[in-house]
Amino acid sequence: MRFSQCATVFAVVFTITIPLLAQTVVVFPPANGTVPNCQQGLVTVLTGADNGGVYFYYGGFFTSNAAAWFGAGPVGCSNFFALQFSPKATGVTLGLHNFGDATTITVGTSTGLVAYSLPKGGDVMITDPGPTLGLNFQSQDPGHTFAITSLTIGHQVTTSTLEMVGTMETPGAVETTYTNPSSQTTVMNVPLGAFFSVGMQKNTSPLSLPTPITTALSASATTVEPPHLPLSTATVMPKVVPLYADRTLLNVDDASGAEVHHFVAIHLGTTVVTLLPVSTSDPAKAITIKVSKPDGLGSSQHAPWDEYYINVAHNSGIPPQYLKGQGRQEGSGSSLRPDNWRYEICQDYETIGGAAGLAFTDARFIPFRLDDAIGNTLHETVLDEIDPRIRFWIKRVDPITGLVDRHIDDTDRQVTAREIWDDNDSVHYRQNWSLQCSGATVAAIHSPGSAVLNFVAQTPTSQSSGIQQVMWEEASQPAFWDGVLVASFTGVREPKYVFDRVDYINVGGGSVQIAANKLVGFWSTKASTFPDRQAYTDRLSNMFRKYNYYWKGVGPDSNTVKVRYGKAVDEWSERERPFSTKVVFQ
Amino acid sequence: MKNVLILSLILCAVPLRGTTTAENIAKQFFPAALTIIGGLPVPPSQQQVVFATGALEPGGPTLIVAGYCNSERGSIAVISAAGTPTMLASVMPESLVGRHIAVRLLDLDGDQRLKIVVRVDQYRGLPGTWVYEWSSGELKLLGPTSEETPGNVASELSDATFVDLDGDGVMEVIDHQAGASYDDNGQATVANEYIVGHVGNSTFAPQPVDYFGQFVRTKATPIASDAHFNATNGDHPRDFILVNGTGDPKTRVASATVTLNGSVIVHASDLNEKIERVRLTLPSVATENILSVELHGQPGASVMIVLRPQP
């Protein structure tokens, strides 16, 4: 009985410091070995007091003299082992024995380090009233055999705290987790467009994981900010067709009771949500989720585009990263350019400039018909009126130099679609229309002697323009656009104002709000709760696909697998996530 | 003769009680659910109504198949004009989007059951093609289809051409899909592909096509038209199929000379108005190819050419 001489002393100490009835004996597992075979890191976890955990590190269990021990020795061990308690422990006692030659063993306790000089076979009882996170034991001699036994613990109960926990996506990171004491939280700040979650958890110990609390969610008192001008410099509010105009958040999970509740922020404003614990008796917690403008989107092409996209996104209820993602998809080299422009020659042939086309029959097109409109609504040298076509080449006879292959000029007249096709489809500007137009159209155009393109190219109205590449046939519809304010005239609709120059945006122009208004018309459900995030983003992706339904090409994430337009926009949106430096929980 | 039969069925889709009557009947059923943005009804001036008439099944009544569009999305209806006009069925798929709609009736399978082929032109990019079967009083969408969101079943056919390539009376569908991307200079790179398969209820196992093109004889003096295409695995044998005309013998060319990379593969004497199609096996093709086609015959006559890897 190695401790027989000390037993009385221990009993005295024990009765003084901790009530006997409160002690819990930690039963060491049976071990076959007679010397410790150490493991690095965590060896095992045993049940302590009050169902708390006792974590054993760096040592090994063994049996000696019919008693179970945990300690260090020469086999795979360092000269160190440790215990940790979760939650913190009070009233800890244990016996320490020196199996080797005389040495000094240092014990770390809640009150500090205590060095024990023990002879060979020497024992000492260690007590730590706690509360303590753990104890550690270190011999001054490497490979030395020393161990503990008879571990008892008074209690392992600490005062738990309620925390708010939230997650949010940020550019370049899948998800970041934020916590804040519930008692100190009244507001959760989220940037517009963010996919985020909010929940409650109980924190009982820094050593153990917090315990999530299942809560029921209710939302109330939503305030949506009024529509924002697209730029801070703008003075005219464009026509806005909103989705979910009375909501700042959409639920993207369908769990009525869940440990976390997932949302996407779709409008600027505030919504008060109340989390009512259903798995515990903790009190309900109401916080205000404040949706604010992000500091930016993605990692590039910020000004002025981010402000523009964020404002339109708020107006429309479409996450800004998706709108910017669409702009990247439509850009040349994925660049956002205010004068992004393409001549849609096949549409010109099929519906606009060709025989009985809209240029001759539709009041939205007739005023801008080339060449009749030159000098009236379209002017030489005026930006964005006739000049977008100057990027194309034509072959014309010069009276002096003969046939010249050159760029189109504003002063050129009777520039036909045929001239543009022949000199820009597979040469010069290489638009490759012959690969993108329908087979019937290409066959008609390519037939020997074909005259189907022998009409004046209606480049101002058979155009897709601006960073979202809006067609004039769309922009000219009152359902999507009210026009601009020019010289005290409201409702001015001219093709050039669809470009995204700041001057045009300021007076009600620009392609982004027009495109967003059109997209809203493609939204396919009135549901405001979605089973999960995927169900919501699938809807978004399908909505964007309807903008260019049969496009199938290379998205940003792959050069080999061709994707649909909606998927390509979705992939771009991942690169344009909103970010904010605001403190999440306040 | 198979193509002749197909065309005759199309021509048999004659108006019921006159075009005006059928058109007026179709207009009566413009769907109220097909609204403009904001849920407002489509003004009559903006209502697109197209129609075709025919017996959708052998011995069945002549029916009106109407297509409706509000410049953003479309709807299809089958209407009986017998007695008081009655709408027998209609569909307004969520993804039947586009700026303009057209319908026609085609016997795709040579069984005298007319399929409803719907084309929706888009504001941007290629058109879409939706094929419906009239079955047990319902409109059944034929594949290939997708369902990107619950219940949103949509056709995945885009710029589809229906043609009987092998002369078995069943039309193949050659589908053209494309998507352009633009570089910093605004120059376009086009992901462009053609596939061939059969429209079906549940399965659509398309095969790749190296080249598909239509060539039309015009009034101009015949000259060769060149088409460029790339091919992979060029050492693998190819099927070369030339289909003369679009079904009506009057649409066939009198002769054609076709060269591939400068070598004549179809001589002028290989084709005349009585020959529906020419099929050849080419032992190989190059990585980059030039197909040259010169047509002779009546203006408006045409050929379709398909080059595809042999199975």
Question: Notable features of this structure?
Answer:
heterodimer, A: 586 residues, 34 strands, disordered N terminus, B: 311 residues, mainly beta, 4-stranded antiparallel β-sheet, 2 helices, globular
Map the helices and strands.
The complex is a heterodimer of chains A (586) and B (311).
Chain A (H helix, E strand, L loop, with lengths): L6 H11 L6 E2 L16 E6 L5 E5 L2 E5 L2 E6 L7 E10 L2 E7 L4 E7 L2 E7 L4 E6 L3 E8 L6 E8 L7 E10 L2 E9 L5 E5 L3 E9 L7 E3 L1 E10 L24 E3 L5 E2 L1 E6 L3 E9 L7 E8 L3 E2 L7 H12 L3 H11 L10 E3 L1 H8 L5 H4 L31 E6 L3 E6 L9 H8 L8 H4 L2 H8 L16 E3 L4 E2 H4 L8 E3 L2 E4 L9 H5 L4 H10 L12 H13 L6 E3 L7 E3 H10 L3 E2 L7
Parallel strand pairs in A: 15-23
Antiparallel strand pairs in A: 1-12, 2-3, 3-6, 4-5, 5-12, 6-11, 7-10, 7-12, 8-9, 8-11, 13-14, 13-16, 16-17, 16-21, 18-20, 18-22, 19-21, 22-23, 24-34, 25-28, 26-27, 28-29, 30-31, 32-33
Chain B lengths: L1 H10 L7 H10 L6 E2 L3 E2 L6 E8 L6 E8 L4 E7 L5 E6 L8 E7 L8 E7 L6 E8 L2 E4 L3 E3 L5 E3 L3 E5 L8 E11 L5 E10 L9 E3 L1 E6 L8 E6 L7 E7 L10 E6 L2 E4 L10 E6 L5 E9 L5 E8 L2
Antiparallel strand pairs in B: 1-2, 3-4, 4-5, 5-6, 7-8, 8-9, 9-10, 11-12, 13-14, 14-15, 15-16, 17-24, 18-23, 19-22, 19-24, 20-21, 20-23
- Largest sheet properties of chain B: 4 strands, antiparallel
Which residues of chain B form runs of ≥5 with pLDDT under 50? 1-15
Radius of gyration of chain B: 21 Å
Fraction of helical residues of chain A: 10-25%
Helix content of chain B: under 10%
> Which of globular, elongated, flat, extended, rod-shaped describes the shape of chain B?
globular
Described by strand count, sense and barrel closure, the largest sheet of chain A is: 6 strands, antiparallel
Q: Name the assembly state.
A: heterodimer
Strand fraction band of chain B?
over 45%
Structural class of chain B: mainly beta
Note the run of SSEs of chain B as H and E. HHEEEEEEEEEEEEEEEEEEEEEEEE
Gap between N and C termini of chain B, in Å? 26 Å
Q: Could you tell me the mean pLDDT of chain A? A: 91
Uncertain segments of chain A of ≥5 residues (pLDDT<50)?
1-20
Number of DSSP E strands of chain A: 34
The greatest interface here is: A-B, 62 and 60 residues
Strand content of chain A: 25-35%
**What does the average pLDDT of chain B come to?**
90
Radius of gyration of chain A: 37 Å
Order of the strands making up the biggest sheet of chain B: 3-4-5-6
With helices defined by DSSP (H or I, 4 residues minimum), what is the helix count of chain A?
Answer: 13
